[in-house]
């Protein structure tokens, strides 16, 4: 998401944090800095005497410092180890003393910068690892992993509302569109699904091809509340289906495909924890409720519905629902009563 992050410390002023998102003006602004100049020349340090006008015409940042009374500017680039996701850190200092930095001050800075770079690497590596883990596993799941839940088989049985979303007839598109276009379509739909799940306190656990698995745990510090979890899951489902229609209308105007989304909502007990091989674990949910949700999803096309609910979910969600009938689910011994939203609530 970001090409870089900068922290700015001003004597007597507030500390500010700036995130430079890819494709934004902030990235273009970076290309007009002394840091970019040093990177392009393969140099690790630079100094500009602002009192003499050095760099002011070339770099807006230095012109701003000079206007604020700056007389001298130092930049030191420290490269992180190759295995780190981040390229490195740049440390800059600006003086407003007449004559700029003294020789004694420069000697101190020369000793100080490597230590600061090491501290920055430690902080950045830890923060980056946590952020990466959250991106791949979800914020709540990553917190459990970082807290030490990393043993195979370790987990717990929890009650949760399960949301399973699947793109309808998506496989057929792979015969019409190039892989890059297919990936773009997936990203667009997964983005809106993820947004509406997360804004209702749910968590996506897995992307499976063109499907999304998310949960809304019923338990909290206040105790079990199945209705609250189901209400949140239902709000997510309705919002994402509405957003998907808007996405398809836009794409249709651009000559693209209409891709429907089928959503199934279920309520039940799942195992939430680590499963997998010794060297490759997956922190996910498994169990009867997940299997039943997967089987229910197959009924969406047969029944001509984009949103189906199990009996347990319909009973707990607090919204008027209409029974569609009782159906056999592959691999499930008991027939399942299947529901949709009542017409008045659509």
TrEMBL record:
Domain of life assignment:
Bacteria
Q: Which InterPro entries match?
A: A/G_cyclase (IPR001054), Adenylyl/Guanylyl_Cyclase_3/4 (IPR050697), Nucleotide_cyclase (IPR029787)
Which CDD domains does the protein's record reference? CHD
Q: Where is the Guanylate cyclase domain?
A: 161-297
User: PANTHER family attached here?
Assistant: ADENYLATE CYCLASE, TERMINAL-DIFFERENTIATION SPECIFIC-RELATED (PTHR43081), BLR2264 PROTEIN (PTHR43081:SF11)
Q: What's the protein name?
A: Adenylate/guanylate cyclase domain-containing protein
Per the UniProt record, the source organism is Rhizobium hidalgonense
């Amino acid at each position: 998401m970001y090409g870089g992050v900068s922290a700015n410390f001003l004597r007597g002023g507030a500390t500010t944090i700036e995130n430079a998102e890819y494709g934004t003006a902030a990235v273009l602004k970076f290309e007009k800095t002394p840091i970019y100049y040093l990177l392009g020349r393969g140099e690790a340090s630079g100094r500009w005497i602002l009192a003499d006008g050095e760099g002011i015409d070339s770099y807006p940042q230095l012109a701003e410092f000079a206007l604020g009374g700056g007389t001298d500017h130092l930049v030191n680039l420290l490269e992180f180890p190759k295995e780190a996701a981040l390229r490195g850190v740049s440390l800059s200092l600006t003086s407003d003393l007449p004559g700029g930095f003294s020789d004694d001050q420069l000697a101190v800075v020369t000793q100080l910068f490597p230590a600061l770079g090491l501290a920055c690497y430690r902080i950045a590596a830890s923060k980056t690892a946590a952020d990466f883990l959250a991106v791949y596993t979800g914020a709540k799941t990553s917190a459990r992993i970082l807290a030490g839940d990393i043993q195979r088989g370790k987990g717990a049985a929890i009650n949760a509302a399960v949301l399973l979303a699947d793109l309808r007839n998506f496989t057929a598109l792979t015969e019409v569109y190039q892989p890059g276009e297919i990936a773009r379509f997936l990203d667009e739909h997964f983005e809106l699904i993820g947004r509406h799940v997360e804004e209702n306190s749910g968590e996506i656990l897995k992307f499976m091809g063109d499907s999304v698995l998310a949960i809304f745990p019923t338990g909290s510090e206040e105790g079990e509340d199945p209705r609250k979890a189901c209400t949140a899951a239902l709000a997510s489902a309705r919002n994402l289906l509405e957003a998907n229609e808007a996405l398809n209308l836009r794409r249709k105007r651009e000559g693209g495909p209409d891709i429907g989304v089928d959503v199934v909502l279920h309520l039940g007990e799942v195992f939430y924890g680590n499963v997998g091989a010794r060297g490759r674990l997956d922190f996910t949910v498994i169990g009867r409720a997940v299997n039943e949700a997967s089987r229910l999803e197959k009924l969406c096309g047969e029944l001509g519905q984009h949103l189906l609910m199990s009996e347990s979910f319909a009973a707990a969600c607090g919204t008027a629902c209409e029974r569609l009938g009782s159906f056999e689910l592959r691999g499930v011994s008991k027939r399942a009563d299947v529901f949709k939203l009542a017409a008045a609530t659509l």
